[in-house]
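Office hours follow-up: a student asked to see two folded examples consecutively, so here they are.
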Amino acid sequence: MTVSTNGSAEFAPSLRAGTALAFPPLSFAARRRRVTGVVLRDLAALRRSPVRVFEIIFWPVVELVVWGYVTLFLESQKVPFVVSMLLGAVLLWQVLHRASNEVAIGFLEDIWSRNLLNMHVTPVTPPEYMTGLVLFSLTKIAAGITAMALLAYVIYGFGLLTVGIGLVPFMALLMIMGWALAFVAISCVLRFGEGAQVLAWSLVFVFQPLAGVFYPVSVLPQPLQYIAAFVPATHVFEGMRAVLNGGAIPWDRMAFAGVLDVVYVALALWLYAVTLRHARAKGRLSRFGE
């Protein structure tokens, strides 16, 4: 700092140039940095935990091996069952399952490490925090699905890419639904406390029977079929079976599933905002992890 002839303080040119490096708090660049910070924080924790890295691969692979050999047994018994149907269902189910679990458990890890309050007193806003959790979950989903796809090809000769271009919307729709379920689970934990954390890894299983993961929805009772029609995953798994049977991608069903996903994510984020505001008003954030 220098002093002018009239006695007023002025910053030196070098300091003025340095302050220009800062981004306005609400700018896209500043938001990007804060989101990236959340991702890098979780990545650093993952790199220092071999158990977490092992878990990303272990459970999806176990599920694939079990269901794969069940399929081979059914084929050996002349059961009219298509291997690709079951293996494709297992792989896509993992996308939905992991998308929901990874985001919700990422939130719970802040509770278990008594870091939740710290995160909410930093400049990181709640939308940026959730965006960081979602982006980090993508890396773990990609690792798990890649391992499963390679193993399915090596052991059973099933290539995930046989689904074709439909694989892209199928996986995207399932991930978005999984994130919506994760936001709901997080909201329940904020509202009802750590006793509700079981929802983080169990809520997605409520929709497994309705989604028709391993069987056509037509086998469900008629009332449940009506409910299943409003589950985005239902249209994805029905579309997968149609494609593997040699049919075209049912884009009308995919579009409807996309609309449902948008509605459910919007509602889930609204619920998260309401419960977070309530938790702050009641001082509950400071009690998590005690």
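And the second, which I mentioned at the end of office hours:
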Amino acid sequence: MKLAYVPLFLLIFISPCALGQNWGGGVDDTDIHFGFTFQYISSEYKISKKSDWRSVYEDNIGQGVQPGELRALYSESTPGFGIGFVVNKRVNSHSDLRFTPVLAFSDKLLRYQYVNADQNQEKKVNGTLVELPLSFKLKSDRRTNFRAYMLGGVKFTADISSRKKTNNSLVTDPAEKFINSKRGYFSYETGVGFDLYFEYFKMSPEIKLSYSAGDVLQHENHRFASPIDKLNLRNLTFSLFFE
């Protein structure tokens, strides 16, 4: 789903809300309520390179052909998706505490470009993730069937994908080594959205940015990991919450 289509997608849902004030299932009046979410995720790395990143070579195992000098090392944004549920604790009429665990499928991509273009490679970091965000939601006054909000919080991410398929100790060809991320890490999050009230439920489109609190790279001694000093993960997430 491209973000360019988001305004049209939202307009389809917003139109029925403009006819009169809806009940919204009474979710704002309960102390604790539940829901579910669907997410589109765009992920990329922010790469901090070592001072000698251009000329960090592999060969502690003496196999394969050493690559030449690196010309560029960068990350491209890649799409993913997630599904999860919502536990919302009402604090007062203008704030909530939210726990929104999600199962996310999100791959990341690193590109290695060498002076000799024939040696160029890309490395995909596969991820099946359990994300555990805890956030504080600050809400505006309700206007008919609309309410804007902003939120911020922290998120713990656990990578539950199999390590057997990316175990570098089993790889004999240096050109086939994997880039692996840490099994668990924290991120900071901030976002904005708005609540749309229908007769029996509330829907909330939301856009959120997250940035890992530290290095997420699992450091290993091979040609793809050695040039990197630190990897930080950045996510842009578009979510639809139904409560």
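Two things to take away from it. Residues 3-242 form one domain. Helices lie at 6-14.
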